[in-house]
C-alpha cells in the first residue's frame, strides 16, 4: 500500500542536535519495535562522540565488504577454464557442494578446487549445486547463472539471498527442475512471484520463510502460478483459525497435503 | 511599640505562613517558571540557538550553504548525495525546507511506486539503472548504525508494455536502445503473450516488451523515511516552513558576442513559519528547487520568466501540477501472482497489490479531460466511464470487479517535453532544478540527486550526462521527448 500507514508516528524534527533524535525516527520507521537491547558502553559512547560513531560506521562497512569479497568474480579462472570450473570453485570456496555430471558430490570445506581438478573438469557441466548456508548474494549469483545445464539448486538458509536474487534466476529456466529456498530469512512472497519464469521446475521448497507474510495463502498462489510443480511449503492449513475441539485433533494428525 | 513589635512578629509569622501556603499551593507554577528559566539559559550557553531575547528553536538557522526547497524524495536525495560527495566531513551545511511535514499532498507518497528501464531516451534508462542499483543496495547506502534495516517491499515483477500495430516499430527501436544501455528487456509476440499470461486478451496487440529484471514496484514511503533518517544522521537540518521570498542581487555583464545580460544571484531565502507571520531570512549560497508540483511557483518567486516572451529572461519554468487518479479494486478471478505492471496502448495501467487479489491502477486523461489541480478530490465517474472499459477490454476477468478505494496525486508535469529539468538556471546562477519529471521522478530520484550534487560540487555532470535536461532547452526549443510515458 502506498498511502501513508496510520501506525507510523511521524516525528517532526525541526533541529536535530546530535545523534539522540535519530532514535525517535527509527521507531517510526520500524513499528514492530526495535528491541532495545542492553546498551553497551560502546553504544553509549557512540551516541555522544562523533569519533566513536565514525568508528562504528567503519566496522559496519567492513562487515559489508567482507561479504562482497566472498562474492567477487573469478574472471581469470572463467576465461581460462570455463564457466563450470569457475562456478564450482566459487561454491566450494564458500563451503557448499557441487555435483558434476556423472560424478559424485564434491565438498571441500572452503578450499575450492585444486589445480588438477581445474584441468580435469573444464568441460564437464554441473548438474546440481548445494549452496546451503553459503554467503552468496546478488553478485555471486553471476557464477551460478553461467551454468546452463543446472538441474538442481539448493539455497537453503542463505542469509543474503533475497527477492532481488530470485528475480535473477530466469536464465536457468530451461534446465532447472529442483529449487529449494527453505529457511532464507530475506525471501518474501514478492520474490516468489518472479519464479514463474522457471517453467520446467518440478520441485520447489518454500517452507520456513520467516519474511513471508501469509505462508498458507502464498503456497496456494505459487501452486496456481506453477501448475506442473510440486510445492513444498507450510501447508495450506497453517494460518486457518480452527475451533477449539478441532484444534486439539489437528495437532495430532498431519495437515492435509495440498 | 510592643503592639507594633507583636504586629510585626505576627505579620512575619503570617508572612511565613503565607509563604508556606504559597509554596504548598503553587508548585505547578514554580515548575513552569523553572523550565522557562532553563530554556532561557540553554538558549544562551554555547551550542544553543544564540538569541538571549527570545527562543528561536522553531525557526531555521540564519545561515546555510545550500537551501533545498521541498523535502520529497528528490530533495532528500539531493541532500544525501551532497553530504556523501562533500570533500570533507561536515564541509557543507544543508537545510531542507518542507512546507508540509505530513506529506499529505506530496507526489512521492501518493505515487504507485513503479520503477522501470523501458524508456526511449538513453539518459532516462541510465538514470533508472543506477536508481535500481541504489534501491537494491539500499541497506549499504542508507545504513545508520543501531537502526533496523530498511524494507522497501520491492516486487521484482517487471513491466509489460503492449503496443498496437502503429506503435510496434517504435517499441522495437526503443527495446534496441534499452538493451544497448544494459536493461534486460525481451520482446514478445501475441502468441507468446497468450502462453505466458493467459488472462490477457491480445486483440489489437502486435508486440509486447517485458522487463525481466530490475523492474517492478516498491513502497515509496519507506524510501522517504529511510532517506530522511540517513540524511539527518549525516547532519542535514530540516525546517517546516514555506519559502515566500528570494532576495537577490543583479549584475550586468556581456556575453562574448557583445550582448548585455543580467545575471542574478540569490542571497537570502525568506522562510515563513506555519500559522504565523514570523519568517526567518536564511542566508545561502545555493538554492535547489525540488518543490515538485509547485516548482513553477518557486521559480516565479526567483524572477524566472519575468521578461519579454521569447527571450531567456521571459522563459518560464514549464512545470505545473497535474492531477492523476489511482483506484484500488478487488477482483477475485483476476490475474495471479505473476502479473507484471501492465501498460495498455490506450494509456490504462494496473498492477497487483499484495496477496489478496487486489489491484491498483488508473489511466492518464487526455488533454480535454484534465481534472482541476486545485484539490485532490477523486472523480469516481472517471473510473466508470474511462478506465474500467479499457481494463475490461484488455483483461476480461476485470469485467467483475469492485472498487475499494481511490486517491489522487500530482504529477509535476513538464508541459514542454514531459522529462525532468536538471541543473542550474542560466541567468539565476545559483538556483538548481531537479523537478518536472512528470510521473517518473520517484524512480529516477537517487540518480538525479547524484547528478545535481555533482553539478553543485564539481560544476559538471560526471557519472551520467544530463545535458539534454538542462533549463536552456526551453529557450532553444530543443525537446528531449520521452515516448514511453504512462
TrEMBL record, chain A:
Example GO biological process: SCF-dependent proteasomal ubiquitin-dependent protein catabolic process
GO annotation, cellular component aspect: mitochondrion; SCF ubiquitin ligase complex
Domain of life (superkingdom): Eukaryota
InterPro entries assigned: Leu-rich_rpt_Cys-con_subtyp, LRR_dom_sf
Oligomer and partners: Interacts with incompletely assembled mitochondrial NADH:ubiquinone oxidoreductase complex (complex I).
Role of this protein: Required for the assembly of the mitochondrial NADH:ubiquinone oxidoreductase complex (complex I). Involved in the assembly of the distal region of complex I.
Family note: Belongs to the ATP synthase subunit s family.
Designated name of the protein: Distal membrane-arm assembly complex protein 2
Gene designation per UniProt: DMAC2
From TrEMBL, chain B:
Alphabetized UniProt keyword annotations: Electron transport, FAD, Flavoprotein, Membrane, Mitochondrion, Mitochondrion inner membrane, Oxidoreductase, Respiratory chain, Signal, Transmembrane, Transmembrane helix, Transport
Domain FAD dependent oxidoreductase: 65-455
Pfam family, one: DAO
Signal peptide per UniProt: 1-20
Membrane-topology descriptor: Single-pass membrane protein
Localization in the cell: Mitochondrion inner membrane
Single Gene Ontology BP annotation: mitochondrial respiratory chain complex I assembly
One GO MF term attached to the UniProt entry: oxidoreductase activity
Cofactor(s) in the UniProt record: FAD
SUPFAM superfamilies with a match to the protein in the record: FAD/NAD(P)-binding domain
Gene Ontology CC entries for this record: mitochondrial inner membrane
Subunit structure of this chain's protein: Associates with components of the mitochondrial respiratory chain complex I.
PANTHER family per record: FAD-DEPENDENT OXIDOREDUCTASE DOMAIN-CONTAINING PROTEIN 1, SARCOSINE DEHYDROGENASE-RELATED
Function recorded in the entry: Required for the assembly of the mitochondrial membrane respiratory chain NADH dehydrogenase (Complex I). Involved in mid-late stages of complex I assembly.
Name of this chain's protein: FAD-dependent oxidoreductase domain-containing protein 1
Gene: FOXRED1
Amino acid at each position: 500500500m502506498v498511502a501513508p500507514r496510520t501506525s507510523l508516528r511521524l516525528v517532526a524534527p525541526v533541529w536535530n542536535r546530535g545523534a539522540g533524535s535519530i532514535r525517535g525516527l527509527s521507531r517510526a520507521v520500524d513499528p514492530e519495535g526495535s528491541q532495545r537491547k542492553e546498551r553497551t558502553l560502546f553504544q553509549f559512547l557512540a551516541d555522544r562522540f562523533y569519533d566513536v560513531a565514525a568508528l562504528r560506521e567503519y566496522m559496519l562497512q567492513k562487515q559489508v565488504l567482507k561479504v562482497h569479497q566472498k562474492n567477487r568474480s573469478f574472471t581469470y579462472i572463467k576465461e581460462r577454464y570455463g564457466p563450470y570450473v569457475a562456478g564450482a570453485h566459487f561454491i566450494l570456496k564458500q563451503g557448499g557442494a557441487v555435483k558434476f555430471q556423472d560424478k559424485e558430490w564434491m565438498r571441500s570445506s572452503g578450499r575450492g578446487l585444486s589445480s588438477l581438478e581445474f584441468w580435469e573438469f573444464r568441460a564437464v557441466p554441473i548438474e546440481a549445486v548445494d549452496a546451503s548456508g553459503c554467503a552468496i548474494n546478488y553478485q555471486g549469483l553471476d557464477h551460478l547463472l553461467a551454468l546452463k545445464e543446472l538441474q538442481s539448486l539448493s539455497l537453503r538458509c542463505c542469509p543474503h539471498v533475497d527477492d532481488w536474487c530470485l528475480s535473477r534466476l530466469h536464465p536457468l529456466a530451461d534446465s532447472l527442475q529442483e529449487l529449494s529456498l527453505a529457511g532464507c530469512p530475506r525471501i518474501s512472497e514478492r520474490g516468489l512471484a518472479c519464479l514463474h519464469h522457471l517453467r520446467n521446475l518440478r520441485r520447489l521448497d518454500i517452507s520456513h520463510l520467516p519474511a513471508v507474510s501469509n505462508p498458507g495463502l502464498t503456497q496456494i498462489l505459487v501452486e496456481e502460478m506453477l501448475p506442473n510443480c510440486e510445492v513444498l511449503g507450510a501447508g495450506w492449513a497453517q494460518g486457518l483459525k480452527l475451533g477449539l475441539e478441532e484444534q486439539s485433533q489437528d495437532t495430532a494428525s498431519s495437515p492435509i497435503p495440498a | 511599640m510592643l503592639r507594633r513589635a507583636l504586629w510585626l512578629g505576627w505579620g512575619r509569622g503570617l508572612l511565613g505562613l503565607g509563604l508556606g501556603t504559597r509554596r504548598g499551593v503553587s508548585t505547578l507554577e514554580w515548575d513552569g517558571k523553572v523550565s522557562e528559566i532553563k530554556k532561557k539559559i540553554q538558549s544562551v550557553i554555547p551550542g544553543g540557538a544564540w538569541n538571549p531575547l527570545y527562543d528561536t528553536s522553531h525557526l531555521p538557522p540564519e545561515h546555510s550553504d545550500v537551501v533545498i526547497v521541498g523535502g520529497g524524495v528528490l530533495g532528500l536525495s539531493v541532500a544525501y548525495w551532497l553530504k556523501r560527495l562533500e570533500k570533507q566531513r561536515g564541509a557543507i551545511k544543508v537545510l531542507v525546507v518542507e512546507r508540509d511535514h505530513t506529506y499529505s499532498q506530496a507526489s512521492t507518497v501518493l505515487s504507485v511506486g513503479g520503477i522501470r528501464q523501458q524508456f526511449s531516451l538513453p539518459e532516462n534508462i541510465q538514470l533508472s539503472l543506477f536508481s535500481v542499483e541504489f534501491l537494491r543496495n539500499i541497506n549499504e547506502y542508507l545504513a545508520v548504525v543501531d537502526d533496523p534495516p530498511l524494507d522497501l517491499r520491492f516486487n521484482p515483477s517487471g513491466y509489460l508494455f503492449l503496443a498496437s500495430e502503429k506503435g510496434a516499430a517504435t517499441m522495437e527501436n526503443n527495446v534496441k536502445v534499452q538493451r544497448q544501455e544494459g536493461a534486460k528487456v525481451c520482446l514478445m509476440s501475441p502468441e507468446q503473450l497468450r502462453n505466458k499470461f493467459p488472462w490477457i486478451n491480445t486483440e489489437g496487440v502486435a508486440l509486447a516488451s517485458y522487463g525481466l529484471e530490475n523492474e517492478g514496484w516498491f513502497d515509496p514511503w519507506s524510501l522517504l523515511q529511510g532517506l530522511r533518517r540517513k540524511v539527518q544522521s549525516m547532519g542535514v537540518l530540516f525546517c517546516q516552513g514555506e519559502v515566500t521570498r528570494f532576495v537577490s542581487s543583479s549584475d550586468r555583464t556581456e556575453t562574448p558576442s557583445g550582448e548585455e545580460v543580467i545575471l542574478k544571484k540569490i542571497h537570502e531565502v525568506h522562510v515563513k513559519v506555519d500559522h504565523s507571520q514570523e519568517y526567518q531570512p536564511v542566508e545561502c549560497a545555493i538554492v535547489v528547487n525540488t518543490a515538485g508540483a509547485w516548482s513553477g511557483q518557486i521559480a516565479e518567486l526567483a524572477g524566472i520568466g519575468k521578461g519579454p516572451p521569447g527571450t531567456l529572461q521571459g522563459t518560464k519554468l514549464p512545470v505545473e501540477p497535474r492531477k492523476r487518479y489511482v483506484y484500488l479494486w478487488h477482483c477475485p478471478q483476476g490475474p495471479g501472482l505473476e502479473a507484471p505492471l501492465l501498460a495498455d496502448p490506450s494509456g490504462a495501467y494496473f498492477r497487483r497489490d499484495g496477496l489478496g487479489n487486489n489491484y491498483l491502477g488508473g489511466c492518464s486523461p487526455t488533454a480535454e479531460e484534465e481534472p482541476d489541480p486545485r484539490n485532490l478530490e477523486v472523480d469516481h465517474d472517471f473510473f466508470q466511464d474511462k478506465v474500467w472499459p479499457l481494463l475490461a477490454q484488455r483483461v476480461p476477468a476485470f469485467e467483475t470487479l469492485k472498487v475499494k478505494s481511490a486517491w489522487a496525486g500530482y504529477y509535476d508535469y513538464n508541459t514542454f517535453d514531459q522529462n525532468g529539468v536538471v541543473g542550474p538556471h542560466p541567468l539565476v546562477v545559483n538556483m538548481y532544478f531537479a523537478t518536472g519529471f512528470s510521473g517518473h521522478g520517484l524512480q529516477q530520484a537517487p540518480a538525479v540527486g547524484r547528478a545535481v550534487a555533482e553539478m553543485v560540487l564539481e560544476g559538471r555532470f560526471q557519472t551520467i550526462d544530463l545535458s539534454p535536461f538542462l533549463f536552456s532547452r526551453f529557450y532553444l526549443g530543443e525537446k528531449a521527448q520521452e515516448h514511453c510515458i504512462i
